[in-house]
Amino acid sequence: MKQFFFRAPSFLLLLMLTAAFGFGCKSKRSDGPKKMAVIVSTLNNPWFVFLAENAAAKAKELGYEAKIFDSQNNTALETDHFENALASGYSAVLFNPTDADGSVVNVLKAKEAGVPVFCMDREVNSDAATSQILSDSYSGCVAMGKYFVQQLNKKGNYVELLGLVGDNNTWQRSKGFHSLVDYYPELKMVAQQSADFDRNKGMEVLESILQAHPNIDAVFCGNDAMAMGAYQALVSAGKPNVKVFGFDGAEDAITGIGEGKIAATAMQFPKVMAETAAVYADEYLKGKREFPKKMPVAVELVTKENIKDYIAYGKKD
Is the pTM of this model over 0.90? Predict the structure, then answer.
């Protein structure tokens, strides 16, 4: 009996501290201002700037404070942003991951803390995210492949510039493209190399490839930033007539198609993805729990034939 009375006060004190601590953590998120964190892979690309700004703007329109965090394509920095967001009482994360595998741990941390995560454009290889709103990159590049074959009259040498190897979009776009192009044996890929979705790297990588393979007819790029870099490399090499194909619907590419510099791009709709993520987060915070694990957003081919119907990052109203 003495042993019981000795331990009881300690046990009660522990319960009181646990309750107080739990109450304090909960009230930090529930009693303070509602906030959404917008964590994006990089702000070094205008396309992602547009995505982030539209996500933040929609969150503010819905009555939330919103802050944009730039991960600079660095998973360690992305982890810091998640820890900051969770410690600062953000209610939800609108997320553009840096790496399909490497970003999973951050989504799991948020889920464990009770904070929903809505992925935009890029996905994580986990069902831990509340929902993932993604462009249908594969189908978009099947259409791109068909146009590519037509423009090259079913024959010629070409180069493929891949994006980040840790991003599923890189491989979905490449697979969609090759699912059609590889049926034409006279279309020969002489080089395939990653340029990390980066404009400067796209230029540098193609400059290097051209030294080994100077006679090419086309370059297929996994995004518009690399396409514009590739075009710069071709102009510098005295080959401005080599056809360049991109993916994104970025401003430079839309202008480039109009000026005859770029053959085609695949239009994603970043505003749709960003606003859908913010709306889903708002609905979640108001009690809804059923969301599509993956929501595909259609991609449209943009060429010189239909350029009049498009503007940067979308379609004309």
Answer: no
